[in-house]
Design a protein that fits this description.
The protein has 22 helices and 5 strands. It has about 475 residues and is mainly alpha-helical. It has a 5-stranded parallel beta sheet with strand order 3-2-1-4-5, sandwiched between helices. The protein is globular, with a radius of gyration of 23 Å. Helix 12 packs antiparallel against helix 13, helix 15 packs across helix 21 and helix 17 runs antiparallel to helix 18.
Length: about 475
């Protein structure tokens, strides 16, 4: 107990206790800390899988707070209204939170900060979701970076602080009421797929630290060569934890320094790619919903999601085994190998000539590691409308990609049941996860290609040349 006025810590995508600058500042001087999560319009706007994953993360985080002698208060409603009500109930004199950088969050947070300060309260935001605040990385001319390689050169050698430890949390003399998370029904939209995906998800800060510890000890040394092999467990698996802030990027960066060699350097470069995505989203917010390059606004992409090829792509029935395997992996695990993401995105945008926003929205609905900046930059980079020196001539060929990164076909066999006499459980799980209305069965015939690879590539390049002309 403490007699000092409490500080409300508004949690969002920072569901952890360690290396949490806002939480540490809130707890300084022995002030009581009231942890709060608010279900507002940004939460309700999440896709089915990200919202389900958030529900799982909140469950585990509430348990971690209980173990630390604290608790998580849940409230629903507009953020400013909820926080003002909590201030009245608790006598809090300060509200702290970790910064977010997507356009919707920035608009909301600015409104909250202004409103609370008008009320005479201390309202303060802190870093923690990124390694480098977007406005602190500038070119020699003082602008923002538009190409990754020079961005990486600018940040790779920067001095960074050490991760801060978990603070001691003091409790208020009286806790405000909390809503019941089960009543929110955050995971309901996942329907029968939730039980399938749950087998492949271990939420929470402790799980993140275990997974990353194993990665550093066993696999990071080969990360530069193994990370693209789609059938291997060669990646860190940190994307879902970074998305909800169950681990900080600073913690991962610092721990990776314990390992020497090219693999560890490559891993930090991948962390920097995430930083670059946020750097671009902060400086050019239209990255999330419009072509980053102005000249791509009139490219003749198909935007009709009812077309046969779009439906086939979504259901993993394009006739391209690597593409279909990747789409099914997403339905079963809630994640997709990064190399496979590039291939499926290229197939949709290039071979099928469909708008990248169709894919962006589908990933937003189905990925448990959905991230607003990474998802947007990834799709625009592959489509050619994003920041890239050679935008459109990069057309991933699913056959050659499979030969190179799945040479024995293990990944494709793992996720595609059709045509196998004894398909593995992973492939069969797909049919338990998808909507029953799709009427797909393991014994179905595997489909023919929707479009020939050469034909699709030539059609895409012709459209590009016509648009450019």
């Amino acid at each position: 107990m403490s007699t000092k006025p409490p500080c409300i810590l508004w949690f969002r995508r920072d569901l952890r206790l360690a290396d949490h600058p806002a939480l540490r500042a809130a707890a300084e001087g022995g002030r009581p800390v009231i942890p709060v999560f608010i279900r507002d319009h940004t939460v309700d706007g999440l896709g089915a899988a990200p919202r389900w994953r958030l529900d799982r993360g909140l469950e585990v985080f509430a348990e971690a707070l209980e173990a630390a002698g604290s608790r998580l208060i849940l409230r629903a409603g507009p953020a400013l209204e909820v926080l003002r009500e909590l201030v009245k109930e608790t006598g809090a004199e300060a509200v702290y939170w970790s910064r977010l950088y997507d356009p919707a969050a920035r608009e909301r947070d600015a409104r909250v900060k202004e409103g609370l300060r008008d009320d005479g309260l201390e309202a303060k935001s802190f870093p923690g979701h990124l390694l480098f605040e977007p406005w602190t990385v500038e070119t020699g001319q003082g602008g923002f970076y538009k190409v990754f390689t020079p961005y990486w050169k600018a940040v790779r050698g920067r001095d960074l602080p050490k991760p801060c430890p978990k603070p001691t949390l003091h409790t208020p003399d009286r806790w405000p009421d909390s809503e019941d998370r089960a009543d929110w029904g955050l995971g309901h939209a996942m329907r029968r797929g939730a039980a399938v995906v749950a087998e492949h998800v271990a939420p929470g800060e402790a799980a993140a630290n275990r997974r990353f510890g194993q990665f550093v000890a066993r696999r990071i040394k080969d990360y530069d060569t193994e990370r693209d092999m789609v059938a291997e467990d060669g990646t860190s698996g940190m994307s879902q934890y970074l998305s909800l802030g169950e681990v900080s990027p600073l913690t991962l960066w610092t721990k990776s320094l314990e390992a020497k060699g090219k693999g560890a350097e490559t891993f930090r470069k991948e962390l920097a790619w995430r930083e670059f995505a946020y750097h671009l989203m902060f400086h050019t917010p239209h990255l999330t919903d419009a072509p980053w390059r102005e000249e791509w606004r009139h490219f003749p992409w198909n935007e009709d999601e009812r077309r046969r090829e779009v439906i086939a792509w979504k259901r993993g029935r394009t006739g391209e085994p690597l593409v279909d395997a990747a789409m099914r992996e997403m339905y079963v695990t809630g994640r997709m190998h990064n190399r496979a993401r590039m291939v499926v995105a290229s197939h949709l945008c290039k071979h099928l000539l469909c708008h990248w926003r169709i894919g962006l929205r589908w990933f937003e609905e189905h990925l448990v590691d959905w991230d607003p900046a990474n998802n947007a930059l990834g799709w625009q980079w592959v489509a050619g409308s994003g920041p890239d020196a050679a935008p459109y001539f990069r057309v991933f060929n699913p056959e050659t990609q499979a030969d190179r990164f799945d040479p024995d076909g293990d990944y494709r066999k793992r996720w595609i049941a059709e045509g196998q006499a004894d398909p593995p459980d992973t492939a069969l799980s797909y049919f338990d996860a998808i909507p029953e209305g799709w009427a797909m069965r393991p014994g179905d015939s595997y489909p023919e290609r929707i479009v020939g690879l050469k034909e699709g590539r030539e059609r895409a390049l012709a459209a590009y040349e016509e648009t450019k002309a």
